[in-house]
Amino acid sequence: MGRTLVELFYDVVSPYSWLGFEVLCRYQHIWNIDLRLRPAYLGAIMQATGNKPPALLPKRGEYLLKDMKRMAKYYQVPVKISPDDLTRMLSSSTLGAMRFITAVDMTQPQYMEPLSREFWMRFWSQREDVSQPENILSVAKKAGLSSELIQKLLEMIATPEVKNRLKETTEEAIKYGAFGMPAVVAHFNGERHLFFGSDRLELLSSVIGEKWLGPVPS
């Protein structure tokens, strides 16, 4: 039996995407799957689908703060959440970061996992800005990229090729039915199965016939 293609559409502005990313990275060595990381732009998905950030509803925002703390502990992912993070999410642009990750995907895909993780670490664990070139450079160095390679990738961010690739990936997620992130698409038995959120991975395992061992499988 062939391996199941599982695509993860994500943006590093989304803490729930970080949870889903870490769990799927753990299971890619346990399940019979090929995990494909698909950097996309959450802002464009929200705009195209008419979706609104859940934190705009005050009571839901209060709940999300508590929920994320519980989820971070349960998933064993070092998300550090505080009341001002809801505003920080809404006011931060990750377009440059997602274009940089896209450029890496196009040229050096072996760095996708450590680079994406480092962006989340910087934004959601160390609570630092990831929009400026100097911060992107720092993240990329921490992920193991050379200074020469980083400079080439920074130059690629402004090219039509990278911009179009990110746009096309985002549009592909929307065509699959995505309205937020993380969006996980499993290609199984000739069908495409969309799962929204980091708390649907147990259901994903059931659909593709794999065993769920919790968010941190031993």
Automatic annotation (TrEMBL):
Residues 6-208 form the DSBA-like thioredoxin domain. GO terms for molecular function: glutathione peroxidase activity; glutathione transferase activity. InterPro entries: DSBA-like_thioredoxin_dom, GST_Kappa/NadH, GSTK, HCCAis_GSTk, Thioredoxin-like_sf. The active site is at residue 14. The keyword Ribonucleoprotein does not apply. Pfam families: DSBA. Keywords: Transferase. Belongs to the GST superfamily. Kappa family. This is Glutathione S-transferase kappa 1.
